[in-house]
Amino acid sequence: MGVGTQQLDFAEFYRGAADECLRAVLVSVGDQDTARELVDEAFARAWASWRTVSTHPAPKAWVVRTALNAGISRWRRRRREVPVPDPATLANPPAAGGASARLVDPRIMAAVMRLPARQRQVIALRLILDLDTARTAEVLGIAPGTVMAHLGRAMAALRHDLEPELQQENRS
Amino acid sequence: MNDNELITAVRESVADVYTVTPVAHVISRGRAVRARRRIPAVAGTLAVAAGTALAVTTLLPSGHQGLLGSGHPGRHLATAQLAAWTVAKQVNGDIDITINQLKDPAGLQSTLRADGLPVTVSFSGPPLSASCQPDDTGRDILSAVAHFHTSDGRAYLVIDPSALPSGTGVSIFDEPGAGVPLPSPHTPGHRQGSGSTPPAGITGPLAIGLVFASRQCTG
User: Choosing among B4, B16, B26, which should be mutated to test the A contact, i.e. which has the most A CBs within 10 A?
Assistant: First the structure.
C-alpha cells in the first residue's frame, strides 16, 4: 500500500467516521470544543499509525479510545479537572451559548453529564458508536459483565432524570 | 419510556453535531504526530542552523577531504562538504551528517547513497509517493539506526547503516510547521555566515524515519 493509497483510504475512513466519533466523544466529555480538539488529535494519530489502525477490528473505537486517552493525558498535564461542564450549568444552559452549543439537546446532555465518567464512556461506545458489549469491554479494558452493569445503571439514571420531562413534553 | 425511546433520545441529542475539520488538516497534523514519534532528540534539537552558510559552494565527491573540518572528534575517512551540509563516514561505518541549510536534498541523497546508505532525502515535506512507504517501526530500532549527537556546539545526525533492518532504508525530511524553533544564528559553535536571517521557507525541524527500501525510493 503506497502513501497515496494510504491517504485515500484514510480520507474515506475519516469522512465516514468523524461525525460519529465526535458525537461519542462529546457524550463522554460534555464540551463540544474539547471533543472536537480531542477527536482531531485522535484522527491525526490514526493517520500517523494508519497501517495499524486500518486493520483494527473497530477503527472507530480506536479513535474514540485514543481521544479519551488524550483527554486524560491533557488533564494530567494541566493538573486540573477533566474539562466537563458543571451539570448545573448544563441543566440551565445560557441563552447565549453560541451556535455550536445549540446543536445538542441541553436537557439530555445535562443528564448524561451527571453520570459517572465510566458510565458516560459506556453510553458513548454502546449507544452512539453502536459497539457490542464485548467490543466495548475490550476498548475500555473492563469485563463484559461490567459493561452491562454500567449500561443498566446509566439507562436507569437517565430514565429517572428524563422521563418526567419527556412525558410532559409528549403530553403538551 | 422504554429502552428504545431512551436510546433514540440520547442519539438524537447529539445528532446535529458534525465535524468541521477538513481531512487535509487532519493529515497535516498526522504528519506532525509522525515526526514527533521519530527520534525525539532529532525533533528537539536537530533543527536547521539558519544563517550559517559556509563560503564553500562546490560539492566535493565522497572520498575528498572537506575544505573545512566539521569539528567532530572522530577521525574522518571521507568528507563531502557543501555550503548547506556535510557528510562524513567514520571508521566504524557510521555516517555523520551535519545540516546547516535545507538546500540541495538531491546532492545530499546521492552523497549518502554513494556511502552505501539506502536513503531518500526531501526538504519539501515528507516523501509522498507510492514508492516510498513508511515503515512504522519501533522507536528502539529507529534509535539504533540513527541518533543525535552534539560536539563542540555543533549538531550531528549519526546513522549506523549496519543497524538498518533488512529491506528498509532511511528517510530524511523536513517537517515544516512542527513548531520547533530554529536555533539562533548566534548559537555558540555555529559559524555566522553573511546572512543571519533564517532562509525563507524553513519553519520546522528535520525528521528521520524508516521506509521500505526500493530502487525508486531509496536507490
Answer: B26
